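Severity: low
Component: inverse-folding endpoint
Summary: output formatting inconsistent between runs
Steps to reproduce: submit the following structure tokens with default settings.
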């Protein structure tokens, strides 16, 4: 039994932590709308990974044990693959939104992730996700779909394909993050090693995005997206890597559009129709079902 598994958190705590990460993810769009709505999406994504990766390095490398773990992980090809998939997710996600709009791009990206993570995790013997996962995932994806109805976005097939590629990238990252965590690596070190590489991969994108960030609002946006919605959010996400199945983690993160929608209504004054509210309720019910299943499942050791 690994030392990490001995200290593994309760599954309910892990699920709540991943839900907290989804809540932070959901603030990204509102933060951009409030602080710098004209900021170029690719540049914002690259800056987010750069600052988030640096935040992870500072946190994980604060002691000798963490620095040794980072040096060890950077020598593993799977970490470079995870770094590439983190960067690929950002690129494919924003390409999808550019062609289909925010609603459909988010739907295509997030909806495919739980299925990819659950099936890939099952194939790699991380555990069968189970009937409860299947039911809650179908409900949650249906709820996300209802949130997009009436958005008026163009159904661009290539844009949807980009979204599917984004979901596959995120699923790959989640599954192999779980594998490394269960092998004894600390989730924070896994995230720090992979996100720092992702930021390095997207450094040219940031360099070519212009001087949009050279203002107080630009710096504030980068700080929030990098440190809050990336470093802090993924530290919470990492709690789930140690004990939850990949498919369950990916399903819980479908709460992100609910939080984003609620912030849009409460902070930005956006409106949401009856169908949209129904979608939110369905997602909450689906996550509640999954949460009850986690409560009844013993912690893996």
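Observed output (run 2 of 3):
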């Amino acid at each position: 039994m690994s030392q990490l598994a001995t200290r593994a958190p309760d599954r309910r705590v892990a699920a709540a932590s991943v839900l907290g990460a989804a809540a932070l993810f959901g603030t990204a769009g509102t933060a951009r709308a409030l602080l710098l709505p004209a900021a170029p999406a690719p540049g914002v994504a690259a800056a987010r990974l750069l600052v988030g990766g640096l935040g992870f390095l500072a946190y994980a490398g604060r002691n000798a044990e963490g620095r040794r773990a980072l040096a060890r992980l950077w020598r593993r090809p799977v970490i470079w693959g995870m770094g590439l998939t983190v960067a690929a997710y950002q690129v494919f996600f924003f390409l999808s939104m550019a062609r289909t709009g925010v609603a459909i791009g988010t739907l295509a990206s997030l909806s495919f992730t739980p299925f990819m993570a659950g099936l890939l995790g099952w194939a790699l013997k991380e555990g069968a996700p189970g009937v409860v996962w299947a039911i809650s995932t179908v409900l949650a994806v249906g709820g996300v779909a209802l949130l997009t109805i009436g958005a008026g976005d163009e159904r661009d097939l290539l844009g949807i394909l980009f979204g599917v590629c984004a979901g596959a990238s995120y699923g790959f990252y989640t599954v192999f993050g779980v594998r490394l965590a269960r092998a004894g690596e600390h989730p924070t070190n896994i995230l720090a090693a992979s996100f720092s590489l992702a930021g390095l991969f997207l450094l040219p994108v940031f360099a070519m995005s212009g001087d949009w960030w050279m203002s107080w609002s630009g710096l504030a946006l980068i700080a929030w997206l990098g440190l809050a919605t990336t470093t802090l959010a993924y530290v919470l996400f990492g709690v789930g890597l140690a004990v939850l199945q990949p498919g369950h983690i990916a399903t819980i993160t479908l709460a992100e559009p609910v939080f984003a929608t609620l912030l849009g209504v409460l902070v930005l004054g956006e409106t949401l129709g009856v169908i949209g509210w129904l979608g939110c309720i369905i997602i909450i019910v689906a996550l509640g079902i999954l949460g009850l299943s986690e409560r009844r499942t013993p912690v893996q050791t």
